[in-house]
Input
Amino acid sequence: MRNKILFLLAFLGAVFALFTAYNLGREKKALPPVFTPATNPYVKGIYSNGIIESYQPSGANINIFPEVAGTVTQVLVNQGDKVARDTPLLRIDDTVQKATVEQLKAQASAAQSQLQQLKAQPRKETLDVSKAQVDYAAANLRTAQDQYRKVETSYQLNPQSVSKDQLDNAANAVNAARTNLEVARRQYELTKAGAWVYDVRNQEHQAQATVKSSAAAQALLDKYTVRAPVDGVVLAVNTAKGSFISTQGSYGTYTQGYNPVIVLSHSQPYFSVRTFIDEILIPRLPPAAEMRAQMFLRGTDISIPLEFYQLQPYVTPKIELSNQRTERVDTRVLPVLFRFKPPENMNIYPGQLVDVYVETK
Output
């Protein structure tokens, strides 16, 4: 009985081994590809990675950085919005700057009022007081002269009637009264002449300085509202309400660097494709006027002809595709830019990676 069990187990093991060997040796049918890989459409052509960008005459998007630092209080646009030039994009907390503007406006108003006061001199009431002082000094002079004549007449009739000191004191009183009248008259003329021209000029300069300071503060206050420099489309908003931004932009948690607060593109009917030609393939490129290329959208069988429009004649390290500070590569590439009109009813976005074939000489 034991031997029968052993023979049975051995037979089953042999059958299992034969089945396993047959199953493993059978050729399996390959799965069909998800999409047809891009093939070279040219007899002679070179392959390059490409990235779709908004079409920019300068070859780059518009990166917006604020001119002042502060906390974002409002984000007024969303990604994908079309905006006109001078459209507010976001606002930064301007509480302190508003108070500064109000203070400088008050100082400018005070300086202007002081200037008007100087130009309005002499004040009628002040001139009247000065004229009254002249009249008072003239009356005092007449009184002193009358007193002197009386003392002098008495002295001439009888030298014993008044002393020499009384006569001298009366004469001195006349001289003092005459001098006081002269001072009062000069003071009247000075008051009548109004403010000194140099005081007016000095106050004019102070008023102009305060007005300019106020205007400069107002101009800086306007910078707390970030506006669109051109008509365009909002590609990216890299901040949010409550976030702190500086003139270097907003801090990116993932990139660990500073990014533009907002990225804009021009409103154009074209998209741009930035390709990067390896430096060893540069000699095979045809002249710019003869350059032809085709773009293949990854994940589809769609190809789109490209039109050359710009070459950046500077070979750089290949870091543009990821734009990461931590990327370290030895490959150097030549950026070549093409453009195309996006087909209707097709989702194509800036930042999308594509395959590009460029026809060579």
User: Anything to note?
Assistant: The mean pLDDT is 85. The chain has five helices and 17 strands.
